Structures are given as structure tokens and as C-alpha cells.
Fold each of these.
Amino acid sequence: MTEHQAPESRAVRRDKAGVRHVLPAESPDGSTPPTRGGRRTGGLTGRGVALLTGGLVLAAALSGCGVGGGGTTASAPRTLPGTAAPAGGDPAGGAPAGGDSAGGDPQGGQPPVSGTPTEGSTGPATSAHPPSGTASPRRATAERCHTSDLKASIGHNDPGAGQENFPVVLTNRSGRACTVYGFPGLAFVNAAGEQVTVDPERATGQPARRVTLAPGAGAWAAMSFADPAVTGVTTVIPAAVLVTPPDETSSLRVPWTGGRVSNTGKASVPRLSPLQPGTGPA
């Protein structure tokens, strides 16, 4: 059964010859669509196009912004993967750009500059390397021996080849270690303490050395002179020998038992070597 269709309402007019012509129906806005060969073209008039365009523009504007007094605000821009991290380092622990670097920040930021405080520090800036000129700890060294730390003695004669040879010994009698360096002083004196011979010469061709004396240890200097009986010089028998430690001004008195000594300075003049460890020749 065919459904009945309602006839389309169209205007009809007759021309002068009495021929009927069906006119196209008006559009809702009151305009009449143009016809081509008695048919509707389906196009829009200029007014319809303008209205349609205006509606689309209004819809787009409403969708892009809030409408009304309680409208929403625009959301913050989203950080997409791969974008640059904010300045100051990646708080999530990412590596600095360009790959890992030795000695960098363990949290992934840039390594702190030497000499400037790191972020969050309250103390003064510190450097990785200590400043130049800083004194390093030194091992304690023994002080110089003073006359009061020592006792003096004259060892036995060891004659040979017309020479008289005596060791002059300084022994540390203190309870601490101390040092001696160089030549001792020596003078032959009579019972009144007056010097009766010339000053001994020094063997300056022999190198001096610093000798550290533990308590009870000694250092010795060799005293040699030609036998006065061989040289024929006038002599004297001293009562004692005054021995002065290096760099000291007070002396230690030692009785002299070695016999005659030249008193002219022309020959048989005693000669001293620098101090060396021990109490005499081995």
C-alpha cells in the first residue's frame, strides 16, 4: 500500500496564452531560490550565505573563551616530553645536557663552581683543593744541645806516625734528645784557668754534620797534633782543657793528662775535626 504524500504547496500563474506555470516555493527567509529551466538550483542567496557565515564565526568564538561572569580560566601550559627543564637543574635527577660529567652534582644538575657556595648552603664557600701556602704538619725535631745538657771528656791517646791523637767527647746527660753541629771550642789552661797555648786550628776541609744525641749518647771530634819531641818546639803541660759545645759560650772543664803541648804556635799546633756520632774511632 502506497503512503499518501501531501502535495507540495506551490504558487501557480497563467500567462497571456492561458498556459499554467508552477512557481517555486519560497524559502523560510522569504526569498525565492533562483530557477534554471523551471527547476530549483538548491543554492543560497547572498543573505543566506552571510547569515550562515556569521553563525559559524559566533560558534567558534564561544567555544574558545568562557561565557558569563563565572567563566573558567585558561589552564597552564603543559610540559611535553623532551622539552628543556627549568633553569637550575632537573629536580627529578636527570643528567645534564651533553652527557654525564665526572664530579658533577649527584642529583643530576650542573656541578657547583669551585669557590662558590652550593644551593642551600649557609657556611662560607669551600674549594676542592686547599689554598696554596697552607702549612703542613711537621714532625717535631730535637733542639740544640746546651752546655748544661752535656758533659765533656778526653779519650785515650792513639799515637801514630809522629802524631798525637785524642778524641774530644760530648755526651748527652739530659733526659731529652738534642743536637750538636760543627766544631767544639777548646783551650788549654793552667790551674788558674789561664790559657797557656794558642787556639787549635780547624779541619775545614771535612764536612760538618748535625748529630742528634739521645740521652746517654755521645759525639766526638778528633784532636791531633805533631809530637813536640819531634818538632823541637817549646812546650807546656796544661792543667786542664776547657771544652765549649758548638754555639755555646759556657765551657766544660776537663783535667788534662796527655802530657806536653806546644805553646809557640810555630809547630805542633792542635787541629780539630767536626763532631761526628760516637765516642771515638772504632
Amino acid sequence: MEYFVYIIYSKSLDRYYVGHSQDLDDRMNRHNSGRSKYTKIARDWEVKYTERFSARSEAMAREKDIKRKKSSLFTGCFYFNELFELYKKG
């Protein structure tokens, strides 16, 4: 089975969200239909970045790693947009 770590973006909120899922299409449907606790405020989420893993534990660890880096950037007065740009560059 495949698992995905993903970063999605809402233009209306100007916010990013990091998550993991086995079925990315279904997960996006839940994000954009208001059936996800943390993203239900917006309905315009779009995928900006994905990584694929063969084990759920790997995906969960990567999600945690991304969120930890995001938190350290906020602590240092940076924004998640800057983190996303770093990930896009490799």
C-alpha cells in the first residue's frame, strides 16, 4: 500500500496544511467538503506538494518532521510559505 504526505494550500485563508493519507483523492474531497476538522473553514484547498511512502509509519514520521520544521520557522519569525519554497527547491 502507498501512503502520501501532502501540503495543501487555501488561497482564501492564505494558509497551508500538512497531512498524510492513503487515498489522497478521498482526503482532498473531505478537505474541500468541510468534513475535515482543521480545514473545514475553507473549501478551496489545493495540493501543492506530495511525497509517497510504502509504509504508514514512514508517512507519519515525515509529516511530523515537516510540522516540526514549520514550527521552528514560526518561532524564528518566518512563515510556512517560506518553508514550502524550500521544499520545492529540494
